[in-house]
């Protein structure tokens, strides 16, 4: 757990600076300038307009007219509307409402009178009704009621247990991976897709989401086909529309009936879902009750079979099972009126009611008719006969080993009289059919211990008078299972048709697959109309297949592919140490995910290798289509006159940040004309590539030629990268020597780059004193990486130490997070909120809450501000005088006379001017003369006038922030290996750019390694992922 310390920082009113000779204590608020001018408010729109309703400031600040903004945060006050104070952010994050964080969360200001917070409504369905029981409805569904007994009879108890074990292991391992995903941050509302996509990224999320969608859609088709099978075979067989004239080929007519009724059922269910999901939810409890009652009736019937097994006799001819619905008495002859006459069975095999044997089937004449008990019960020991498998080919007759039988072939025309297999069976086929259910082990043992083997292998209950086989075991009546299973499958189909369109709508709204965008729209209330239409069309494809045994393997493929992607993503993200992968589930290990992935892959090919290949191709195409690389860096380098990289440690820092993973884009700008300098551009690119190889930076290099360096940088920021390789973070060096240069373009290019990255919503990192940064060969065996979290701008400050600690140079450093509490902040509450926030971020760090009291402006701050403004005024006057001399001398320098090898923040960059003649005829009008005279009159003419300048109050406040923060940072982090600090934004009014550079210098004085960080406005590390 993180450690917390609250450290009050006392105001040193008698600092060393205050004891300087000739400097007295100055409080600018007590001077005549204490009343603030309207244009003095820094938080303005650039036109002097106040923004006094900022949602991130306490109302207590509003009460103080002159102290509206915290003086300790004056450097950041221009952007507090988009980059809130830490205290404001934590206060809202700790009151998590299960809704995705967004702009609406910051629309209310903090109120000092303690206004009541909106309490989110509790969900209407809890874990039992909302999660467990619906899953129970899917698990104990169509496969359990219609195919489980057939699987047990065909595979035997031992192999059936093996099938259940394999499938349960697969789902259990996937459940462990899903638990890791669920604990990888707070899970908002949005279902499985939202959880997976936010934790694993869009490429895995999209592939898993679409596989999950297709699986859910085909599940709807499977449930509908199951309902139609129950309806036409067990409830109202006479409702069949198509009938076959060939008694040996009844399957084709049944398939057509399934298609017609399936289409009608699908249409009706789609209309119900379209009209309103509330109707589906109203009947959900009823459908769920049907499932529970049906399952209870099975177990009750099994218990009853111990002492009173139900009467379901099975008629056998030799060792062959007869279809009982075609005759009434299980005998060759019957006695009527004291006379022995041919039975209905005799007439079926002999085609005559006469007692002659000439026309009878050969197998009928050589074998006797016997009757065995179909439900021996738990106490009869039938379990021994059902232990082993009995796989059959298509059309093979069900036989009971142990009964006497003459080895003769009967007539092929009489095959319809026997119970035969409708499909070829094997272990792999049964795995594919069973996987959508993944029921428990008890049902396997229960069915094998109660039912006769030939009854178990009788898929449609032909041997028990067309009774649902699992219904023969139920108590008090088989109709309990028949009616319960029918409503259960209908309910599961409705649930699938309800969930699948919403899943597709969520994928479409994420816009990861552009051509699916139309399915993100729906009715005014958000119902996914278009997604429901597509879902119905895809489900109709499954209905047209018309066979439950053929749809189930397709369904298994998509769910197995979904599970495979989940396990693969978890294993890969753990091995690659992905920044947003920090699960708290203690039983998770990447080896379990890898085992689950391998098991899913094996099950896919075991079930159907050709289906597996098709599913993998589909998922792979989806993945590649929406493939998205992780955070990308654009490193802006400066070259010297010899075309060598001036600060190679920038590349070293980039390689440590990426930890050898991912690609980096390295860019530089050469000033000049491309036609004249393309050779230098190629040489520069080669030099950068060589340095990238030395520093082990993987990626691409791009050198462009531009007339102005700042234009070239803007082009790099806009155009570098493509698709997944588009950068989202810019790294550039500090403009050293800007104070010594009389040319303002040295620091104006730097500030212009900051503004460009902000406009492009890119994050920005500026390593200061980069020459002192460690090389890749150094190792820090101890020390701290300190994060000074002043304002929240997307979480980059939290992410960067985590990334750096993946590299061997920084791995043993510990992370410390410092946050600043103002006078109106509750430090104790901030500590609790920050503890909760860090727990949700899954970050181990030592945290200190530093209290900064509102103090008076010190003499040093006032004097430092005065010196800054005097220097700026002097430089402006010097540049003005130089311009006048140049104009009077009429000397023009041709910008094409020299090939200037500029670079980022180059001191040699000059504004491009149009070529003018060597001699200029000056024409002075009276207006020009008066304007020139007025301009000269306004400029300070003497040094005494320059000294008499009074500092601007907003600059004093900013300098106060820089000085106070610097004192605290140096005091607490002087021994840190690296200090990460929020980078204040440049002023909205460009007239204060030079002062902005001075503020940054003061803010970082006395620190060996500083990384100034400015977020791009997007959340990069959240409690959700």
Automatic annotation (TrEMBL):
It catalyses: K(+)(in) + chloride(in) = K(+)(out) + chloride(out). The keyword Membrane applies. Residues 31-62 are annotated as: Disordered. One of its GO terms (cellular component) is synapse. The chain crosses the membrane at residues 131-150, 162-187, 207-232, 260-277, 283-302, 415-435, 554-575, 587-604. Residues 131-307, 480-631 form the Amino acid permease/ SLC12A domain. The keyword Cell membrane applies. GO terms for molecular function: potassium:chloride symporter activity. Residues 648-766, 779-1025 form the SLC12A transporter C-terminal domain. It comes from the Eukaryota. It is found in: Cell membrane. GO terms for biological process: cell volume homeostasis; chemical synaptic transmission; chloride ion homeostasis; potassium ion homeostasis; potassium ion import across plasma membrane. Keywords: Cell membrane, Chloride, Glycoprotein, Ion transport, Membrane, Phosphoprotein, Potassium, Potassium transport, Symport, Transmembrane, Transmembrane helix, Transport. It is a multi-pass membrane protein. Residues 31-40 have a biased composition (Basic and acidic residues). Gene3D superfamilies: Amino acid/polyamine transporter I (1.20.1740.10). Belongs to the SLC12A transporter family. K/Cl co-transporter subfamily. This is Solute carrier family 12 member 4. It comes from Acipenser ruthenus (Sterlet sturgeon).
């Amino acid at each position: 757990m993180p450690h917390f310390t609250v450290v009050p920082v006392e105001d040193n009113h008698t600092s060393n600076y205050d004891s300087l000779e000739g400097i007295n204590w100055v409080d600018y608020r007590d001077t005549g300038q204490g009343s603030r001018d309207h244009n003095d408010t820094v938080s303005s729109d650039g036109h002097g307009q106040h923004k006094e309703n900022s949602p991130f400031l306490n109302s207590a600040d509003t009460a103080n007219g002159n102290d509206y903004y915290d003086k300790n945060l004056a450097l950041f006050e221009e952007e507090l509307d988009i980059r809130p104070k830490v205290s404001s952010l934590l206060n809202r994050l700790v009151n998590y409402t299960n809704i995705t964080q967004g702009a609406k969360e910051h629309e209310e200001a903090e109120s000092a009178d303690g206004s009541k917070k909106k309490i989110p409504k509790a969900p209407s369905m809890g874990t039992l009704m909302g999660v467990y029981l619906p899953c129970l409805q899917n698990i104990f569904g169509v496969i359990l009621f219609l195919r489980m007994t057939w699987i047990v009879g065909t595979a035997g108890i031992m192999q059936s247990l093996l099938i259940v074990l394999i499938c349960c292991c697969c789902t259990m391992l996937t459940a462990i991976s899903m638990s890791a995903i669920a604990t990888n941050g707070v899970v908002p509302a949005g279902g499985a897709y939202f959880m997976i996509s936010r934790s694993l990224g869009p490429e895995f999320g999209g592939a898993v989401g679409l596989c999950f969608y297709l699986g859910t859609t085909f599940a709807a088709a499977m449930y509908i086909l199951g309902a139609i099978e129950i309806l036409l075979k067990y409830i109202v067989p006479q409702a069949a529309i198509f009938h076959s004239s060939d008694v040996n080929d009844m399957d084709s007519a049944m398939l057509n009936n399934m298609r017609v009724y399936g289409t009608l059922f699908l249409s009706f269910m789609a209309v119900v879902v379209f009209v309103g999901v509330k109707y589906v939810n109203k009947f959900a409890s009823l459908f769920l009750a049907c499932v529970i009652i049906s399952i209870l009736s099975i177990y009750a019937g099994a218990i009853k079979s111990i002492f009173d097994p139900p009467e379901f006799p099975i008629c056998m001819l030799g060792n062959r099972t007869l279809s009982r619905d075609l005759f009434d008495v299980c005998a060759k002859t019957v006695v009527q009126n004291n006379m022995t006459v041919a039975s209905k069975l005799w007439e079926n095999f002999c085609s005559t009611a006469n007692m002659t044997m000439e026309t009878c089937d050969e197998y009928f004449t050589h074998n006797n008719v016997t009757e065995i008990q179909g439900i021996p019960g738990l106490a009869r020991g039938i379990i021994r006969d059902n232990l082993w498998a009995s796989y059959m080919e298509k059309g093979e007759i069900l036989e009971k080993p142990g009964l006497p039988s003459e080895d003769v072939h009967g007539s092929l025309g009489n095959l319809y009289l026997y119970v035969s297999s409708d499909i070829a069976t094997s272990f792999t086929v049964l795995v594919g059919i069973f996987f959508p259910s993944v029921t428990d082990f008890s049902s396997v043992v229960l069915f094998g211990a109660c039912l006769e083997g030939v009854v178990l292998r009788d898929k449609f209950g032909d041997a028990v008078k067309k009774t649902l086989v699992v219904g023969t075991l139920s108590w008090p009546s088989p109709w309990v299972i028949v009616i319960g299973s029918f409503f259960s499958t209908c309910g599961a189909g409705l649930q699938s048709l309800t969930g699948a369109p919403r899943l597709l709508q969520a994928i479409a709204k994420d816009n990861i697959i552009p051509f699916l965008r139309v399915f993100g729209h729906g009715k005014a209330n958000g119902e996914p109309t278009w997604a429901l239409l597509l879902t119905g069309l895809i489900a109709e494809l499954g209905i047209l297949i018309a066979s439950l045994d053929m749809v189930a393997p397709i369904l298994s493929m998509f769910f197995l592919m979904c599970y495979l992607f989940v396990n693969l993503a978890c294993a890969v993200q753990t091995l690659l140490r992905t920044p947003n992968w920090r699960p708290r589930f203690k039983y998770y290990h990447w080896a379990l995910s890898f085992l689950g992935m391998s098991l899913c892959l094996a099950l896919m090919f075991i079930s159907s290798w050709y289906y597996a290949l098709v599913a993998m191709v589909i998922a792979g195409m989806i993945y590649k289509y929406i493939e998205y690389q992780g955070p990308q860096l654009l490193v802006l380098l400066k070259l010297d006159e010899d075309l060598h990289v001036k600060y190679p440690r920038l590349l070293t820092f980039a390689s440590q940040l990426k930890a050898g993973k991912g690609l980096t884009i390295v860019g530089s700008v050469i000033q000049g004309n491309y036609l004249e300098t393309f050779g230098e551009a190629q040489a520069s690119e080669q030099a950068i590539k060589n340095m990238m190889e030395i520093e082990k930076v993987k990626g691409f290099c791009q050198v462009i030629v531009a007339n102005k360096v700042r234009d070239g940088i803007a082009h790099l920021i806009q155009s570098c990268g493509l698709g997944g390789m588009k950068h989202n973070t810019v790294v550039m060096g500090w403009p050293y020597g800007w104070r010594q240069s009389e040319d303002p373009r040295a620091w104006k290019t730097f500030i212009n780059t900051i503004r460009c990255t902000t406009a492009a919503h890119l994050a920005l990192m500026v390593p200061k004193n980069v020459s002192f940064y460690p090389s890749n060969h150094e190792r820090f065996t101890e020390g701290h990486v300190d994060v000074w979290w002043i304002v929240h701008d997307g979480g980059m400050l939290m992410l960067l130490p985590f990334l750096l600690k993946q590299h061997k140079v920084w791995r043993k450093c510990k992370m410390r997070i410092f946050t600043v509490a103002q006078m109106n902040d509750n430090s104790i509450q901030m500590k609790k909120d920050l503890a909760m926030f860090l727990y949700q971020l899954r970050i181990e760090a030592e945290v200190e809450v530093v209290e900064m009291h509102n103090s008076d402006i010190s003499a040093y701050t006032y004097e430092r501000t005065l010196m800054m403004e005097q220097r700026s005024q002097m430089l402006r006057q010097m540049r003005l005088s130089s311009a006048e001399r140049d104009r009077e001398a009429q000397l023009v320098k041709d910008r094409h006379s020299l090939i200037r090898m500029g670079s980022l923040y180059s001191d040699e960059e000059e504004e491009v001017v149009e070529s003018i003649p060597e001699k200029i005829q000056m024409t002075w009008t009276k207006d020009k003369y008066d304007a020139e005279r007025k301009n000269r009159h306004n400029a300070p003419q003497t040094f005494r006038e320059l000294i008499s300048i009074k500092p601007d109050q907003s600059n004093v406040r900013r300098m106060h922030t820089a000085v106070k923060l610097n004192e605290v940072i140096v005091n607490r982090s002087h021994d840190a290996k690296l200090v990460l600090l929020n980078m204040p934004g440049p002023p909205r009014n460009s007239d204060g750019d030079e002062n902005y550079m001075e503020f940054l210098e003061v803010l970082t004085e006395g620190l060996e390694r500083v990384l100034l960080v400015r977020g791009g406005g997007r959340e990069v590390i959240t409690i959700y992922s």
